[in-house]
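Subject: mismatched residue count in predicted assembly?

I count 554 residues in my input, but I want to confirm that the predicted structure covers every chain. Input:
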Amino acid sequence: MRFYEDQYLLWLVGAVLLLLGVATGIGQFLRRQTDSALNPAVVDQFNLRIRAWWLLCAVLAAAFYFGQEATVILFGGLSFWALREFITLTPTRLADHRALFWVFFLFTPLQYVLVYFNKYELFSILIPVYAFLFIPARIALAGDYKRYLERTAKIQAALMICVYCLSHAPALLYLNIAPPSTAAINTAAPAPTVEESQASDVASSAAGASFSGKKQNARLLFFFILVVTMGDAFHYTGEKLLGRHAIAPAISLHKTWEGLLVAVGCGTLFGTCMWWATPFSWEQAAGMSLVITTMGFAGGMTMSAIKRDRGVRDYGTLVEGHGGVLDRIDSVCFAAPVFYHFTRLLFPQ
Amino acid sequence: MLHVEVMRTVLAAIARLISGASTRWIECQPDTCQRVYFANHTSHLDALVLWSSLPSHVRNLTRPVAAKDYWEQGWVKPYLATRVFDALLIDRKHIKVHQSPVDLMLKAIGNTQSLIVFPEGHRNTGSELDEFKSGLYYLAKKRPDLELVPVHIDNLNRVLPRGEFLPVPLLSCITFGPPMWLEAKEPKVEFLRRAREAVRRLKEL
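Triage response: the counts match. Full output below for your records.
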C-alpha cells in the first residue's frame, strides 16, 4: 500500500518541489544582492525558513513513501517532541512528576495506537475524558495543593494541543472517502483531461475502491499540510510586505490584520486551485481552505500568547530559524481536528 | 576496548535523547586542554548529561567525579561508572587525611585528563545555588594551570527529580561559560563566591 504509485500525489510533490525550488532561488538571489534595500537579517531569516521547509518536506515525503504506519509514527514523534517543548516551558512542580510520566509514556503513545487502529470512538475521547480525569486525580494523590488547578490545566492543555489535536492529521488517512468518480460527478465542470486521467487512474488500480481510497487519503493529508503551510508562508510574506496594524500588539507585533487577510485570502485561493487533487468539489475545497487557514492563524496566535506569557520567543532549537517543533506545527494542531471533522461530515462514515 | 567505545557513544546518545539537552558555549570553546568543569547539581543525571554534551574527543578525556556511595549500588551503576564513563568515585563518608579527595583527583587525571565536579557537594532541591565546598579552591591552588570552566545545568531536575527513578523527557540546557583561574593571593571565600557567581550568571544568559 505505497502512496508513490499515485500520479496525483506525484504531481503534488512535484508542485511543492518546484515551489520550494523557486523560493530557494529567490532567497539565494536576494542573498547575493549586496546593495538591495531589503534588510539582510530578513533575507537570512527567509533563507533559514526555506531550509527548514526543505527538511520538513523531506521528512513528510519519507513518511508518505513508507506508507500509513510510518506517517502515524512520524506524527506520534512530532507530538512527543512538541509536548516536551510545551511542558518544558510550563512551570510544573515536583509533585507533577508521576502524572507527567503517564502523560508522556501512556497517553501519548496510546492515542496514536488508537489512531493507527482507526478506533475513532476511542481516540476522540481518550484525552478529553480519560486523561482529563486522570491528571488531576494523580496530582492530588501526590499531595501538593499549591496552584493545583493551574498546574492541572496546563498539563491538560499541553496534552490536548500537542497530542490530541495533532493526532487528527494522520487520522485523515483512515477516513472512508467516496471514490473519486462520485466526487467528480458533483463537480460542476472540471477540465476534461483531469476527468479522463482520473477515470483511468481508478481503472488501473485493480484493487478497487478501497485501494484508490487510501491513495485519496494520502492526498487529503498532503492537501491539508500544504494549505496550512502555505497559509503560514502567505502570512509571513503579507506581514513582512504590508503589515501595519497589529491585531494584539501586547501579544505579537508580527500578527497583523494585513497578514491575516493575505494568509486567509491567498491560502483559500491556493487551496481552491488544488481542488483537483482532493475528493472535494472546488466550492468545498474553497470552504475547507478558508477553515484551515483561519484555524491555522488562530493556532499561531494562541501559541504566541502562551509564549509571551512565558517570556520566550521560540519553543526550541531543533530546526534553525524555525524556533522549535511547536512553532512549526501550532497551526497544524489547531486546523487538524476541525478539518478532520468537516471532512467526516462531508463523507459520512 | 572496542565495546567500551561503542558503549560510550550509545550511552551519550541515550543521555542526550532523554534529557533533550541543547548545549551552549558562551565565550568558551570545546578543547582538549586540561580543565575542571564545575556545575550546579540538581539531578542524578547531571554528571552523565554534562559528560555526554561534550564532543566525543573531549569526552574521552573527561572524567566525572561522583559519590562512591551512590554509584556503587547495584550492578548497572558500578558498570557504567567504572567501565563506561570512567568516573572517579570519591568516598564522601570516610575522608582520610593522607588521601584527600583533591589529591586523589589530581593524581587520577595526570597531565591529560579533565574533571567534572559539582562543588555544591550534594543535589540541590531549591532554585538558588548552595555555597560551594572548598575542593574547587584546593584544586585550583595545587594545579593553577587547570582551566576552571563554569557550567550551568538547566531543567534537568525536572527530568529526574530527587527520589524519582523514572525520567520525564523534558528539554534541558547545558551552558558552558568562560574559563576562570584562581587569582594571585585570592582568599578562599572570595574565590568560591566568584566561582558560584560565574555559574549563577550563566543561568541568565
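The mean pLDDT of chain A is 82. Marking this ticket as 'not a bug'.
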